[in-house]
């Protein structure tokens, strides 16, 4: 029981965006998401019609596959989706930690789990207005609190083991439009600045892969359009003297466009 619904495991490759951009990693992409963003770039891990391709796997089997791909040398494991917090991941994280692996998890912050503090890195990526999804500030706050507390209790009921927070939290907002940029500024002011949480902006890809069911356009990747948005964002941040923001284009889309499994 307690199996993890896995859409794909691939790598080693690099993390393409945010605080860990460029870091070698193996991805564990889980199946299923509580959101349906208009520009979702992983419909194969989101839509129920793709569920037959998702495999229930034990934590041990997932770690076995990760270790095989990694050449049995511990590295960063990126837990992505879909929304990975929908899956029972604590055993996987514990198992990986025992073997020297570190874990990053990316989620939109719509669902909080008490085990978020087990992660080494938590990347919270609240979705902006262009996604078409509602933003619930209290849920994002809950995720930050759960990861920041870092309290570990003895499994035998012997009480509190440590209060040391080990989870590095970062915030990342995809920006497609001016409205998204204003949303990002709000998220920074409301959640990042007071808690000294590193803050990243990602120029969005308006030409995601087709087949989502809510986005069947069959786009050709518009590299020039994405780079133009990145330049606009740099100018926008400079004009506002928004110096706390870090702008990082998605390296994986620049290198591999919309290809899956890289
Ligand atoms: S939250 Fe992420 S995985 Fe889920 S629909 Fe939105 S972009 Fe896709």
Description:
With 262 residues, this protein is α/β, with parallel strands linked by helices. The protein is 27% helix and 22% strand. The strands form 2 sheets. The chain has a 9-stranded mixed β-sheet with strand order 3-1-2-4-5-6-9-10-11. It has a two-stranded antiparallel sheet with strand order 7-8. The two termini are 30 Å apart. The model has no long low-confidence stretch (mean pLDDT 91). Iron/sulfur cluster binds next to loops.
List keywords for this structure.
binds iron/sulfur cluster, nine-stranded mixed beta sheet, 262 residues, two-stranded antiparallel sheet, globular, alpha/beta, 11 strands, 27% helix
Quick structural summary:
The chain is an alpha/beta fold and 262 residues long.
The helix/strand order is: EEEHEHEEHEEEHEHEH
Bound molecules: iron/sulfur cluster
Overall structural class, as computed from helix and strand content, comes to alpha/beta
Average the pLDDT over all residues and give the rounded result.
91
Strand order, main sheet: write it out.
3-1-2-4-5-6-9-10-11
Question: What topology does this entry show?
Answer:
Elements: E1 4-14, E2 24-30, E3 55-57, H1 59-69, E4 76-80, H2 90-98, E5 102-107, E6 121-124, H3 137-149, E7 152-153, E8 160-162, E9 168-175, H4 178-192, E10 199-203, H5 223-239, E11 245-247, H6 251-256
Parallel strand pairs: 2-4, 4-5, 5-6, 6-9, 9-10, 10-11
Antiparallel strand pairs: 1-2, 1-3, 7-8
The site of iron/sulfur cluster has 12 residues, from loops.
